[in-house]
Amino acid sequence: MSKISRRDLLQYIGAGGIGAVGGVLYSESIERDVELIIPQVVPPEDYSPGIATWYNTVCNQCSAGCGISVRIREGKAKKIEGNPVHPVSQGRLCARGQSGLNVLYNPDRIREPLTNAGQRGTGNFYPISWDEVLTTIASRIGRLKIENNASRVRLLTGRVRGHLDELFAQFMGLLGSDHYQQYDFTYPSALKAANKISFGIDQLPYYDIKNADLLLSFGADYLGTWISPVHHSLAYGHMRQGRAGRRGKTVQVEPRMSLSGAAADEWVAARPGTEGLLALGIAHILVSDGHYNGSDRDQWSDVLQAYSPSAVSAETDISEGNIRQLAREFGTSKAALAIAGGATTAGTNAVASAVAVNALNHLAGNLGQPGGIIFNSDQAFSATPGTRQAGMQGILDLVEAMEAGEVDVLLVHDSNPIFSLPDGVGFRQALDKVPLIVALSSFRDETTEQADLILPTNTYLESWGDDVPDPGVGFPVASISQPVVTTLYDTLPVGDIILSLARQIGGELPMAMPWRTMEEFVKERWREEYAMRESGGADQDFEAFWQAALEAGVWGQPGVMTGDQIVPSSSSTIAAITNPASQFAGSETDYPLVLHPYLSASLLDGRGANLPWLQELPDPLTSVVYGSWAELNPATAEDLGIREGDVLEVETPAGSVKVPALIFPALRPGVVAMPIGQGHTSYGRYARNRGANPMDLVSMQIDDRSGDLAWAATRARVRNTGERLQIIKTDGITRTLGRQILGPENDHA
Amino acid sequence: MKWGSDLSTLVEKFRQYLKPGYYDEFDYHWTMTIDLDRCTGCEACVVACQAENNLPIVGEKRYARNREIKWIRIERYWEGEYPDVKMGFIPMLCQHCDDAPCEIACPVFATYHNQDGLNTQIYNRCIGTRTCAVYCPYEVRYFNWFTYTWDEPLEQQLNPDVTVREKGVMEKCTFCIQRIRLAKDNAKDDDRRRVRDGEVVPACVQSCPTEAMAFGDSNDPEAKVSKMMKDPRAYTVLEELNTTPSIVYLKKAHAES
Questions:
Q1: Which position has the higher pLDDT, A238 or A31?
Q2: Alpha carbon of A256 to those of A11, A219, A261, A714: distances in Å?
């Protein structure tokens, strides 16, 4: 018998195996390409069965810009964790960020280019080839460009930062259209406008919660939804228990207890729309009681004259004693910090309210100080994030242009204005006047449904890009996104789509945008940036730097302060102080309640509604899953004879929705609160036809100074329809009943 | 060897098993501390656990009938009435009790205590009597009433290190035993006898944005958990039941003034 070597034996086994399976798979193999056996022998790069590889990239689930590490096993993404070396997330990550896997592997992703075959809005889409769809769009835009009508092309995106932002701007600029704008519902436009007035810096500053002793938050749910929740949570943990013998205190002013309100030592339910007044009331006492002794004390005293504790107490419904105590604590605290966000910066006087809160920071003298406001003036990578945020005014201008027939091609990327804006804006109706709507999107959300052509984009976990966190962290930071898995479907990264459109449109575009892919473009820009910073850095040095940056996922210069921490003078803040009380749509007699919409901690502004993990994540304060609800204070509910599960018709001057009632103890009487996020009419199986969208109730009002939507300035009334609907929640008994579950002594129930 | 001698060894072992404090002498005693003064109830841990341990997506209808499966959940307790109303959060997961009521209850020994002080569940052995869930005072055992499926291609996310459970099986927090195994393997590969403090990080602890949770070996006096357990705020939930949980909470502090 001839000797069979081990290698031969393995070959025989392999061949036999193929033979055996071949018969079974025969029918399938007629349709499929030949199944390659090569990958079994030569594994792809970084592919070793049983061994996990981690790739660093950037989270795109909100605007914080957390660095993430994605665990890959056998070419599939298994888990997302925070990138430990990234200064924003520091290895931690929130529920939304971790649910990014549901975005990547979502069953409702758009898998190929689609056309509606001339029937817009019917929801009927048919596959079309990339060649055809790109040629169609390129020829349309190309013609407009030749006719010098490129301004009839508009580009609307969600929050886009880093060099993708530059790519969009360059593309539109070369076409000859200056109509590239971004709209992100969660972008703190009013806060930014107020900071520009107060500090003269057109950038969001870094709020140093970590080193604060007293954090006074006016409506800003900094632990749940405001700006950078993971980073704030890290700071919060440190502030509470990270400094031996020094426990920071937090106070939250808001009509409905948020996650941050629950964490706070004191929750102050001022009358909705008067939070800014309360800030001025505190400022008044700080000056009059001698907590503030700056040279401009007289000017402060003059401008704050009208906001005496008694006057403010009457308006805000907070007792004079309480206001005085808040002022005393704020004035005597070593590091006091005041922040504004949420509904406080969503009234008709949003900017005035934020300026009032800035006044407190001026009086606390915390500007540029640890535990105060650190300015980010000079950002890394010459990118200035947030400058293209259109705000509400930009959207209104776009709607007007569309209505006037001035828009021939509308490109929409990752933005869903039909869902996140009130009907009063008229965005959907205006779309009827646009001959060609092109959506660049991964999901069929409400706005994408109205498109004529859908260009399916890669998700952020399959794309190249980079990001500069906004606000920064006090020193220069830039992160790189890289694909962590191979593209799942016949989709393209949005940057690649723009680049191939540029090639096809021709003219000067292909010369000015010579990159084949987004990867090439990003790398090129980083190479330039590297050469600028490391003057004379050789190319091979850059390659080493690039590899290191890819591995770390982030580049930064800790210790280098970005802004020259000049303390801005108080004069502009003093000059800008006006009565910050908000005006509400609807009369108090017709609409006795105030509508308080709030961002859902899991679904945010609705973008998370298509992710099953987030739909199944109990709401932090109510434990409700799947669906939406309207909250009422127990006393208000009793007055109206409403029990939990009664279906209410919530009605405002703008419209009405039907939604089950939930009795919520930590809500100001006379307020009806509703989470934003549900009520999608499209957006995949997990989101569609579930709950109600409170934006349908919001009256169209804007804050004059920032042009931002005043989404928390509408009055409402409720009517018990007599129907019942089960609210699905995980909570059983929500009192400890003496069981001392929260610890000995803590128990007063 | 005779049957009798074998049996006496087993009896001896079983007596040791019943002896309280046995695990203090024996190898690791995995312990978790949760600082409620840091915890904000954000539920990052809940999703981290879902991703790591292949928890099913149960769907709206089944959720409505309390068929949820969440190895770690946030419990919420109100204190007082408006306007002096406070919300207290507490993450609730298997307490890995040293004197676990569930272990006594199981007729087929599907749940038992391993040498690391973990309360473990053997899925293959479980026959689904659900007795353990009744005995558990913390309500942290979850029963698979159905064989759950994932809408394609969500199943590609499933963690290959963790079993996907089927209908009829009880399941609960494992302290991410797959991560403990990996850390032990790594220690062995490095010729170390023991795992270093901080080398094992369960998914929930890893994700916690406020760093409220810590995990380690409480047999090691230098471990972070051992130090946290000495904090005057430390307590265990339902202490009067003498279950001796391996999860130690640090109660929320109150502001001065």
A1: A238
A2: 69, 9, 8, 15
Residue predicted with more confidence, A32 or B251: B251
Please work out, in degrees rounded to the nearest 5, the angle formed at the alpha carbon of residue A483 by the alpha carbons of A476 and A228: 40
Residue B160 domain flag: yes
> B122 lies in a domain?
yes
**Cα A85-A91-A97 angle, rounded to 5 deg:** 120
Interchain contact, B38 vs A236, CB within 8 Å = yes
Measured CA distances, A81 to A91, A458, B209 (Å): 7, 20, 11
3-state secondary structure A87-147: CCCCCCCCHHHHCHHHHHCCCCECCCCEECCCCCCCCCCEECCHHHHHHHHHHHHHHHHHC
The range of the structural domain enclosing residue B195 comes to: 26-250
Contact (CB, 8 A) for A680 and A694: no
Nearest CA in chain A to B155: A105
| Six-digit token string for B155 | 């199943």
Q: Which helix (H) or strand (E) holds B213?
A: strand B213-217
- Angle at which helix A518-533 crosses helix A162-175, to 10 degrees, equals 110
Q: Which helix (H) or strand (E) covers residue A419, if one does?
A: helix A417-420
B97: left (phi over 0), alpha (psi -120 to 50) or beta: beta
* Nearest-CB residue to B46 (from A81, A229, A617): A617
Q: What are phi and psi of A450, to 5 degrees?
A: -85, 0
- DSSP reduced 3-state for B190: coil
Q: List chain B residues with CB under 8 Å of A104.
A: 157
| CA–CA distance, B183 with B116 (Å, rounded to integer) | 13
- In total, how many domains does chain B have? 1
Using CA atoms, how far apart are residues A628 and A605, in angstroms rounded to an integer?
13
Give the Cβ contact number of residue B155 at 10 Å. 13
Chain A CB contacts of B210 below 8 Å: 233-234, 236-237, 240
| CATH code of the domain containing B135 | 3.30.70.20
Question: Whose structure tokens read 């969500």?
Answer: B154
pTM for the structure as a whole: 0.91
Q: What is the ipTM for the molecules in this complex?
A: 0.91
pLDDT in tens, A430-452: 999 999 999 999 999 999 999 99
From residue B134, give the alpha-carbon distance in Å to each of A358, A701, B27, B127, B130.
55, 55, 31, 15, 7
Q: Across-strand partners of B249?
A: B34, B235
Mutate to test the interface with B, among A59, A76, A233 (most CBs of B within 10 A): A233
Measured CA to CA, the distance from residue B145 to residue B186 in angstroms comes to 37
Whole-number Cα distances in Å, A455 to A142, A154, A224: 18, 16, 33
Domains of chain A in sequence order:
6-41 (no CATH), 53-59+67-104 (no CATH), 114-182+385-471+494-516 (3.40.50.740), 189-374 (3.40.228.10), 593-724 (2.40.40.20)
Which of B29, B37, B97 has its CA nearest to residue B232? B37
The answer as to whether B2 is a domain residue is no
Answer for the pair B170, B141: CB distance below 8 angstroms, yes or no: yes
Please check whether residue B140 is in contact with residue B166, taking contact to mean a CB–CB distance below 8 angstroms.
no
* A188 band by pLDDT with thresholds 50, 70 and 90: very high
**Neighbouring C-beta atoms of residue A31, cutoff 10 Å:** 6
- Among the partner-chain residues A92, A94, A665, the one whose CB lies closest to the CB of B78 is A665
Binary contact (B44, A743; C-beta < 8 A): no
C-beta atoms of B57 and A635 within 8 A = no
Nearest to B158 by CA among B57, B45, B74: B57
Take residue B197 and report the two structure tokens written for it.
């403090």
Q: Given A93, A612, A744, which is nearest B235 (Cβ)?
A: A744
> What residue type is assigned to position A463 of the chain?
S
In a domain, B114, yes or no: yes
